[in-house]
Design brief:
This protein is of the alpha+beta class. 35% of the residues lie in helices and 13% in strands. It has helices at residues 5-13, 25-33, 52-55, 59-67, 116-130; strands at 76-78, 81-83, 88-91, 98-100, 103-106. Strands 1-2-3-5-4 form a five-stranded mixed sheet, covered by helices on one side.
Length: 132
């Protein structure tokens, strides 16, 4: 059973030991040698940088946080990817929204200001994939 980082942290704080399987070096080397193996991790090199302080000034971002019941203090980020507990969120130069392997990929939030279809798609994905 997979758990999110947020759930893991809560269990750890309560003193519950949780075991997590890690990839062995052999598995990583094997997949690197096999050109047919696709990388399923979020692509850090193409993720756009963001300023969390600026994001918190945008109503859409605040609404998403309220919807998933997370405070700004609970957000962590690494390599231009936000960890929101239930899922990770990254921004890319794209015109669409995708959700794969608990990673939400969207354009920067400024793109949502003039595109109501993007807003609709974002809320549909959150309802169907994150909160389901």
């Amino acid at each position: 059973m997979a758990i999110t980082q947020r759930q893991f942290n809560h269990l750890k704080e309560m003193g519950v030991n949780v075991w997590q399987q890690r990839n062995s070096e052999h598995t990583i080397e094997h997949s690197a040698e096999n050109p047919e193996t696709k990388n399923t991790e979020p692509s850090v090199s193409t993720s756009l940088a963001f300023d969390l302080n600026q994001l918190t000034q945008q109503q859409l971002f605040v609404d998403v946080l309220q919807c998933i019941d997370i405070s700004i203090g609970e957000i962590t980020s690494e390599n231009n990817i936000m960890n929101l507990g239930l899922f990770n969120w990254q921004f890319k130069e794209t015109d669409s929204i995708t959700f794969s392997k608990s990673v939400l990929t969207t354009p920067m939030l400024t793109a949502f200001e003039s595109n109501s279809q993007l807003k609709k798609d974002l809320w549909q994905i959150i309802q169907q994939k994150v909160l389901a």
